[in-house]
Structures are given as structure tokens and as C-alpha cells.
Write a structure and sequence with these properties.
Blueprint: E1 8-12, H1 18-28, E2 32-37, H2 40-52, E3 56-61, H3 70-81, E4 86-89, H4 104-132, E5 135-140, H5 153-172, E6 178-185, E7 187-188, H6 193-196, E8 207-208, H7 210-223, E9 227-230, H8 234-249, H9 251-260, H10 263-273
Parallel strand pairs: 1-2, 1-4, 2-3, 4-5, 5-6, 6-9, 7-8
Helix pairs in contact: 1-2, 1-7, 4-5, 8-9
Length: about 300
């Protein structure tokens, strides 16, 4: 898929956070952006910004936690705009806890919104893509799905599931003209948990901007990239990949790296400070990587 112009793109979690930046990038590509979130006021703002950029936007308030009702969302979208060409499963929730302090509702909310809703939404729209022999699904995961992080274990589990499901689906769809990609950001500036918690990311871990993530989404669609790691710059991203590769042979090595980068300390602070939760946006607080000292 070399161009997004005239394409209809469905993006969840579009009312704030990364979703807004991704929606702006789609607008610049002249796509028709179907914005979904439970927050109507945020959706209205996002759609107004898209139109100001010269793009087309449709606002559909919907709580994707209600996975049994996603078929109703599909019917509404098909009625308003017709077939969907691209799905961006961006919505997510992140709750910092000691594992023993999670409630069953916490576990169900994180796994449902971050993983199950993305799979179900794709299951509903995929048959039309296969029939038309055209389509792309982009899943916004996290480096937390590449290496588990303490005090954020269920979020890590949900994003790991999203990465593995994407990997399996890519192989399943290989003989079709429908593609699937996963984006794995590290720490993000300007939005999400780094801003909401007021506890900065470790300066050695690498930090990217939300525009970097939005650009990665566009690149994944245009160039049919299987996976893109976003972590500050190309060098840091490649060093992050190398670290994870080493971790396949020696997990304890990456444990020590995370400890040296103060990731454990950071997450403990976030847990102790307050029970932070980024509702229904991809919480871009991921981790990791190794970057150079600031000069």
C-alpha cells in the first residue's frame, strides 16, 4: 500500500494521547479517519484538528471494553463510511500495581482493552479486507511486550500477547493482500504516563516523541513493515534490538540492564505515588533501550 489517500482508516483511542498524533499523521496523508473512543469531547477536538489539516474525520463514541458489542460498532461504521481499509488498534490501558494488589477487574480491563478488543475488532473487519484483497492492520504494542517490567506485569502480558498475535497473523495472511504490522514504542515524551505521573523516564533509557510513533505507523503501512521498534533514534533502537536478542540467551543480563537504567525504581515510584491509569489510550511509557549520555 503505497498511499493512504482515499483510504478509510479506523483508529481506536483517538481522543487523546498517541491516538491524536496518529490521527493527525493520517490526515496529512489525506485519509478518511474514523475516530473511536469513549470520550466524545476528545473525539470532537481530534476531528476538528483533522479537518483543520485538510483531512476528513468521523467521530464515533464507543467503549471498546464492551467487546461483545463491537459488531454494533462495525455496523455503524459500515453504514456511515462503508468498508474500512486500515485498522489501527491503538487503544490501551496501563495500571501500575504490585501484582498482589491487582483486582480481577484490573486484570480483565487491561487484557480486554489491550488485547481482546484488538483481536475481536480485527476478526470482524478482516473478512471484508480479504474479500476485497486489500487491507492493513496496525497494532500499537510496546517494548514492555518484548521484556516484562515489574509493577506493570499485566500490561506487559497484554502487549506481549499483541506482538505474538500479530506475528502469527502475519504468517496466516502471507498469501493474501491484507497485511499486519506491530509498533513497539519505548518511553514517549509529551503525552501518556511520563507526563501524567510527573515522574520522568530514566534519561539513559531513550525517549521518543509521539510524532516518531505516528511516523512509524505511516511507514509500517506504506512499506508493509512487520515490526517497528521506536526508541529515540536509529542507533538506540538497534541497540535495543540487540539487547533483547541477548536476552533470549541470558534473561538475567537484561534484568541487570533494567536495574542499571533505574526502570525498576521508576515503576516502584509510580506504584507508590498513586494508582495511575491511562484509560483507553495507549500508555506510551514503555521502556528501554540503551542510549548515550546527554552532552
Amino acid at each position: 500500500m503505497t498511499t493512504l489517500a482515499t483510504k478509510t482508516v479506523l483508529i481506536t483511542g483517538a481522543s487523546r494521547g498517541l491516538g491524536v498524533y496518529i490521527a493527525h499523521a493520517l490526515a496529512r496523508e489525506q485519509a478518511t479517519v474514523v475516530c473511536v473512543s469513549r470520550f466524545k469531547s476528545g473525539l470532537d477536538t481530534t476531528c476538528a484538528q483533522i479537518k483543520a489539516l485538510g483531512g476528513k474525520a468521523i467521530s464515533i463514541p464507543f467503549d471498546i471494553k464492551n467487546v461483545t458489542e463491537l459488531s454494533t460498532l462495525k455496523q455503524q461504521i459500515n453504514k456511515v463510511v462503508g468498508p474500512v481499509d486500515i485498522i489501527i488498534n491503538n487503544a490501551g490501558i496501563e495500571i501500575y500495581r504490585d501484582f498482589v494488589d491487582y483486582s480481577l477487574d484490573d486484570l480483565q480491563s487491561i487484557l480486554t482493552i489491550n488485547l481482546l478488543a484488538a483481536a475481536e475488532l480485527t476478526r470482524l473487519f478482516l473478512p471484508s479486507m480479504l474479500e476485497r484483497r486489500s487491507g492493513h492492520i496496525v497494532n500499537i504494542a510496546s517494548l514492555a511486550g518484548k521484556k516484562g517490567v515489574p509493577y506493570n506485569s499485566i500490561y506487559s502480558a497484554s502487549k506481549a500477547g499483541l506482538i505474538m498475535w500479530t506475528d502469527a497473523m502475519r504468517q496466516e495472511l502471507a498469501a493474501t493482500n491484507t497485511n499486519i504490522s506491530v509498533i513497539c514504542p519505548g518511553y514517549i515524551s509529551e503525552t501518556g504516563m511520563t507526563v501524567n505521573s510527573r515522574i520522568p523516564a530514566p534519561w539513559l533509557a531513550g525517549t521518543s516523541t509521539p510524532i516518531d510513533v505516528a511516523n512509524a505507523v505511516i511507514k509500517a503501512i506504506k512499506q508493509n513493515k512487520a515490526e517497528i521498534i521506536v526508541n529515540q533514534n536509529l542507533l538506540t533502537a538497534n541497540m535495543t534490538k540487540l539487547m533483547f536478542a541477548i536476552g533470549q540467551f541470558c534473561p538475567e543480563f537484561v534484568d541487570r540492564v533494567y536495574h542499571c537504567l533505574d526502570i525498576v525504581k521508576l515503576n516502584r515510584k509510580r506504584t507508590n505515588a498513586k494508582k495511575f491509569s491511562n484509560d483507553y489510550i495507549t500508555a506510551p511509557v514503555r521502556h528501554y533501550g540503551i542510549c548515550h549520555k546527554k552532552s
